[in-house]
Amino acid sequence: MFSVTEMRTFELFSVSHITVLLLFVAVSIWLVYFRHFLKRYQSILKWTLFWVLVLCEVSWHIWLLITGTWEVGDLPLQLCSVSTFIAVYLFLKSNQKAFYLLFFIGFLPPMLSMVTPEMAYQFPHFRFLKYFLHHAAIAWSVLYFVVYEGYRVPRKAIWTGFLMVNLLALPIFFLNILLDTNFFYLANPTESKTILSFFGTGVKYYMNLEIAALVVFFVTYLPMGMLMKREREKG
């Protein structure tokens, strides 16, 4: 379960992969559909998500250190880690503008990462469990803030969020060159077959990244826009 070399047999859309995707969808529906009942347990939901995010991030680095596989490329500078830090901060302190960024990078992107994961280890390996639980918890945290704490995102935040991501990506780009890393997948696509594998190379790759980011931001905003329109109509 904790071996570096064993259980490296992950298959895309295998039974275990589809099962965790279905579990994610089921829990997401449960959080939304039973929100009125779960409201009385809001504090439990909040701190459960908080500690799941913290433990996923910490246990990941402990495993890397214990197994002697930690590298500079494992620094917590990927989007999922950035999303984790923002979510943890929001659980401790309300901040509307910080939520704008989390909403766009912490909702749909983790879901896409679960559909086409950069994963080699099969269930029930630690890496498998940590990967899917971590990405699911990020998306559930966004749902929690929207459903249980009433966070909302204006349409103009699409461009604000897009600008913030690009401002984050700029120093990361040069850091990748300096450290020979691939944070934010700005140096090249993922090693395993994911959506980024179809983005090409060179300038084309960066253009497709920007286009994909905008598309993801607009698609992510659609349910929020519908929710806010419905609330306005209800007064």
Catalogue the unreliable spans.
Answer: none
Radius of gyration: 18 Å
Number of helices: 9
Number of strands: 0
Straight-line distance between termini: 53 Å
State which percent range the strand residues make up: under 5%
Q: Based on CA inertia axes, which overall geometry fits?
A: globular
The residue-averaged pLDDT reads: 92
Summarize the structure.
This protein has 235 residues and is mainly α. It has helices at 15-33, 35-38, 42-66, 79-92, 96-105, 108-115, 126-147, 157-179, 202-234.
Structure notes:
The protein has one domain (15-234). It has helices spanning 15-33, 35-38, 42-66, 79-92, 96-105, 108-115, 126-147, 157-179, 202-234. It is built from nine helices and no strands. The chain has 235 residues and is mainly alpha-helical. Helix 3 packs antiparallel against helix 4 (79-92), helix 4 (79-92) packs antiparallel against helix 5 (96-105) and helix 6 (108-115) packs antiparallel against helix 7 (126-147). The termini are far apart. The protein is globular.
What distinguishing features does this structure have?
single chain; 67% helix; 9 helices; 235 residues
Write the layout of secondary structure elements.
Layout: H1 15-33, H2 35-38, H3 42-66, H4 79-92, H5 96-105, H6 108-115, H7 126-147, H8 157-179, H9 202-234
Helix pairs in contact: 1-7, 3-4, 3-7, 4-5, 4-7, 5-8, 6-7
